[in-house]
Design goal:
The protein is built from eleven helices and seven strands. By secondary structure, the chain is an alpha/beta fold. It folds into three domains: 37 residues, Single alpha-helices involved in coiled-coils or other helix-helix interfaces (Up-down Bundle); 210 residues, Rossmann fold; 55 residues, Orthogonal Bundle (Helix Hairpins), CATH 1.10.287. A seven-stranded parallel sheet has the order 3-2-4-1-5-6-7, with helices on both faces. Helix 2 runs antiparallel to helix 5 and helix 10 packs antiparallel against helix 11.
Length: 320
Amino acid sequence: MTITDDIIRQIQGKDRSVLARCITLLESTAAQHRYASRDLLTRLPRTSPTIRLGITGAPGVGKSTFIDAVGMADIANGKSICALTVDPSSPVSSGSILGDKTRMSQLSLSSEAYVRSSPSGTQLGGLSSRSYDVIRLCTAAAFDYLYVESVGVGQSELDIAQATDLTILLMQPGSGDDLQGIKKGIMEIADIIVITKDDGDLAPQVRHMQKHLRSAVPLQRREGPVPVLSCSALSGAGLSDVRDAIGGWIADHTSSLKEKRAAQESYWYEKKASQLILDYVLASSTIGAAYRDSLTGIHDRSQDIYQALDHLENLLREGL
């Protein structure tokens, strides 16, 4: 794929077929696509009015359903929407179901929305190794709101806060004891907390959880108070409050978004550069061969892991 000025204009025009082709290019692991991907990312405009919202939470909390409901409310108010979801990949087959799109039945059919699911691969942190590239691409398309749904693996999904402007943590009633509300990690990066499934018999549990979180969360944050809201994506109850909280957050932080995104660029550069250096070192004949020999030796118990590390470190020092 050759990147032309026309392709860049089509991206900025939200052309779905071009966006799909470019995302496929960015997600490709084929060596021959590496330079075309870099060319594409380099030529994308650096500024955009798009607001990037990270949606995270445990599996089953209703992330896709939440995005579908809030996104359709945004569209009803004249906004354009992009939704990117990251589905977990099997550690056995490496395959992904990519089923999040089916739970966004309204957004998937809307002409004002673009929905794309991607596999997580083996990457930890809640996003795939190429998620940030895809986010950069869809940000350049200048959608009003870009929703990024993380894998949903629990307390360690911190990459989502390094790729979006604000992070919304979804929680569901009955998902654990009160200690769940004061865990470190994901609780500390949430800008807005929303308790989902606030309907039917779960309503009393929602009120209890909301009260507990409102008292516990301030202990985890050094910044301002974090809104703890509730909603039902099915009935629509509480969605207007969630959208008001998002709008309030944007109004309060618009002036600092440029600095925040610059810090995120540094974070992703460091992460990608580390992987690039590792790949380059392992591709060298001496280091790569020693590494592969050590793996074989450790597997058949002819080498100790720490002796192998000492040997590898000595080789690295000799090469510096």
